[in-house]
Design a protein that fits this description.
Distance between the termini of chain B: 40 Å
Number of domains of chain B: 2
Radius of gyration of chain B: 23 Å
Order of helices and strands of chain B: EEEHEHEHHHEHEHEEHEHEEHEH
Shape of chain A: elongated
Shape of chain B: globular
Helix content of chain B: 25-40%
Low-confidence stretches of chain B: 307-317
Mean pLDDT of chain B: 83
Structural class of chain A: mainly alpha
Helix content of chain A: over 70%
Number of strands of chain A: 4
Order of helices and strands of chain A: HHEHEHEHEHHHHHHHHHHHHH
CATH topology of the largest domain in chain B: Rossmann fold
Strand content of chain B: 25-35%
Number of domains of chain A: 2
Number of helices of chain A: 18
Structural class of chain B: alpha/beta
CATH superfamily of the largest domain in chain B: P-loop containing nucleotide triphosphate hydrolases
Strand order of the largest sheet of chain B: 5-6-7-3-8-9
Largest sheet of chain B: 6 strands, mixed
Strand content of chain A: under 5%
Oligomer: heterodimer
Distance between the termini of chain A: 23 Å
Mean pLDDT of chain A: 81
CATH architecture of the largest domain in chain B: 3-Layer(aba) Sandwich
CATH class of the largest domain in chain B: Alpha Beta
Number of helices of chain B: 11
Largest sheet of chain A: 4 strands, mixed
Largest interface: A-B, 21 and 27 residues
Amino acid sequence: MRQIWVVLRREYLERVKTKGFIIGTIAIPLLMIGLMALNIFIAVQAAGSDRELVLVDFTGRIGEEVAGRLGELGYDIEVAGRETNLEELDRQVIEDDLEGYLVLDDLTLSEGLFAYRAKDSPGSTRVALFESAVNDVALENYLATISTGESLRSLIEGGRLEFESVVEVEDQEEAEVARVSGMAFGFGGAMFLYIAMLLYGTFVLRSVLDEKRNRVVEVVVSSISPWRLLLGKVLGVGSMGLTQMGIWLACAGLLLLVAAPMVATQIPGADLARIAEFVPGPGVILLLAVFFLLGYFLYASLFAAVGAMCATEEEAGQVQFPLIMLLIIPFVLQSATLGGGSMKWMDWVALFPFFSPIMMFPRAVEGAVPWWMIGLSMVFMAAAVVGTSWVAGRIYRVGILMQGKRPTLPELMRWIREA
Amino acid sequence: MNDAAVRLSGVTKSFGAHTAVSEFDLDIPRGTILGLLGPNGSGKTTTIRMIMAILLPDAGSVELLGGYPDMKRRSRVGYLPEERGVYPKMKVIEQLVFLGELRGLLRKDAHRRAAAWLDRLGLKDWAAKKVQDLSKGMQQKVQFIGTILHDPDLLILDEPFSGLDPINQDVLESIVREERARGKTILFSTHLMEQAERLCERVCMISRSRKVIDGDLRELKRRERTGAVAVEFEGDAGWLDRAGVVEREEVGDAWHLPPNRIAPDQLLAAAVREGVSLRRFEVLEPRLHEIFVRHAGEDAAEDEGIKPPTEAKGGVR
């Protein structure tokens, strides 16, 4: 046990102390958060740089309504009538007493066209807000002249599908939210698992290959059994992975905590409560951790075997191809069914242990499969972990001390039989 | 528990069609220094790897420190493989502590011992440097420390001297002698006969995957004596002719006489009779290289260029 711990600690510390790890784990997320914060800051600045505007209403019909709409979005609008002296307003703009003013006229009523007069062109956020407000009001005004009901307006706004489950659900709306967020977690989780298994699997491969290439492995296996060495190595890289993911999760949490309320208060229309619905609960995170661990162990030992078989990184790049295919296929299958298309036979494909992390996890969080299937997939994965580590351990044992030519398939079978 | 640190009986190992070691028997008594000699590719490393159970023999048995070479016994061995390997990105001291801990030392003990050894081998200032920043020779010394750090009962050193400068070779030799004086057993392989001659108590020669000869070095030399003589004297060499010496060779101030019709004691008697003022009269012991060639044949010696010792430092004592 102590030996495994010694190997684990070396593997962990040597990785965590590298520049690559520090940059990849801490600096990049921080940089990304920084960029996002900057982006939000600029957007907020642009949207709210000066919210006091004048609206000149030549129509005499929709000015107050538009001002009201913009008022809801946080603008302070002073409505002026058709007697307004535009030259006077232009002068105020030039002298920086006023940022700009809107002009609504008959063209606004018939075609939704209106003018914004200022020194600087408005930001895209402002254009979108103004356009939608003016257009809405102009449309309503037009509809009011030809009909009285709201029905026509609804139709013009476009079709809308409301999903209704035929199974009894207590709160239809809540169920819908759960479905959408489940899909988001499912897909996000699958993507995350795909990246994590590939990334940390490759780390294990590299670690084995390095030890083999710089020949240090001969000294090491003279003092520790290859099994323990392999286990310590896989656990060490895994701990490093958990650390890295922990830091990333913390960063993501920080981002939500800090940035989300900022966005919500500054950008009109954003709803904080809706963002909160997209924070995964502890159950989802636990499930993700279980799938990650099983998937990682499943693939890590195989990546180690590939490392033990090869002599150079180029070679390893070729030999690991089948493993990468094993990761890509379920990802492609999963992406194809994204959005809830329910092909039931796919649920059975998801039981294949090498596909389970990427295919069963999303099904589990979406609640698309019965619980016994989730349990069964975990049992299958655990069994596969035992199987692959048995095979991989044998390849590893022989391979790490071999130099030169990569083994052929029959030779590989002999290693597995005889080791 | 028997008195042999290592015992091989009938050990054979093949790789495909190539037989690397064939029916090999060897006993290494505890507390001796044994040199495993032979040209490159003669099976030295394969033998050592089988002793360390890195390779398993196809036939025959290996005993290490009185039993099957399991992990527990192997942890009492200090093993320096032929292929030198280090973790290039680790710090020197951390690497040594890691190796020490792997063999059961406590962290702080490993640290203390590593520091002491680094100090002794003149690497104190390099302890916190990365291994890759050290020269090849220094890396090799670090590796040697890694081998000996856990105070093993048996040292197995595969070509320990190759790549070291003469000063560091001497340091290493003196450490080996010290360990021997502390009752440890040392097995080292080399293709440098000269080194073996200086250091070994016992030798085992292999050629073309078979053992050629083994035994106590002095005994072996006595047994292999041919009657060659070295003499140094004042005056001219005429008395040698009169005594019946046919072949002779001048080496520095001395004359080397290959085995002659005349026995060494008769030659000495002749010198006394003639009143030659002798400075030196020595019955030469055969050099290991000669013994090897005699038993393995010239072909084997030339296989992979086994080096004869240089004349200046040869077996003349």
